[in-house]
Amino acid sequence: MEDDERHPLNDKPGRSPANRSLERGIEILRAFRQGSELLANGDLAERTGLSRATVSRLTQTLVGAGMLQQDTAQRAYRLAPAVLSVAHAMRSGSSVLAVAAPKMRALAERERINVGLAAPDRDEMVYLESIRYARRHAFRNVVSGQRVPMELTSLGRAYLAVAPEARRQTLLAVFCQRRGARWPQLAAEIEEARHSVRVHGYCAAAWQPEVVAISVPLPLTPAIYSLNVSMLTSETPDTVVQRLSSSLLKLAREILGDLAASEAKSEWP
Asked: For 43, which of 39, 50, 136, 217 could close a Cys bridge (C-beta 3.0–4.6 Å)?
């Protein structure tokens, strides 16, 4: 991404210079991912596509704003505690999480499975909540804020099944460019998941060894969420679907119903 270009998955053209500076600053913050505590200006330039001069200016601004901390010995930057405070404000203020989390925990405890809620961010899905109660422990520990690939996961495919058509086509083009020779097979799987959501209300995927996940879309305003259940098992995806799909669909209906009732109550004169 050159300095004068927008990210291909940003929607709105025609930003003012001030807005472009803000957008570039957000790109700097986005560059920090799990496992990358410290990033130097060169790392940030490589990850964002911005020039080193632009990155140097933005990192100093973000340090002054309290969003980054500078490690002078390492000549690098880390996210500041204020970023965590913003994330906490998002979670604690989310009406969707307030309704969904207790119901998700109840299902996870009852079935001894993992239950997650995620939302799209560009071409990835971000977990808003992940409750882990599987009988067997997976090799990875999924936590709130963790990102997973949209095109590979049931969470992402459930979102793609109901995403606005223009957005879906833009995302498919990104995946096609990224996956190369593997794309035709993935495209067929995404289309199969779309059909499954349309017919059954859910889709399944097993993109990691012995991990089977089933997801349903939660189309809300203004965002579309995805809800999933998963477990580490040697059973076939069909067996897991037969056992858990009805519980997942019931959970989704309960969440949507309670959110609708809460919204109607708040609008009552």
From this structure: 39
Q: Among 1.10.1270.20, 1.10.10.60, 3.60.21.10, 1.10.10.10, what is the CATH number of 20-80?
A: 1.10.10.10
Closest CA to 185 of 168, 207, 201: 207
Cα–Cα dist 42/54, whole Å: 11
Which pair of tokens denotes residue 158? 């459930």
Answer for the pair 214, 228: CB distance below 8 angstroms, yes or no: yes
Give the residue ranges of the chain where pLDDT is below 50: 1-5, 138-139
Please check whether residue 5 is in contact with residue 166, taking contact to mean a CB–CB distance below 8 angstroms. Answer: no
Instruction: Give the 3-state secondary structure of residue 120.
Output: strand
Q: Which CATH class is domain 94-267?
A: alpha beta
pLDDT, position 207 = 84
Per-residue confidence (pLDDT) for residue 166, from 0 to 100: 96
For the chain, give every residue range classified as CATH 3.30.450.40: 94-267
- DSSP state letters, 161-211: HHS-HHHHHHHHHHHHHHHGGGHHHHHHHHHHHHHHHHHHS-EEEEEETTE
Say what angle helices 41-48 and 52-64 make with each other, to 10 degrees: 110
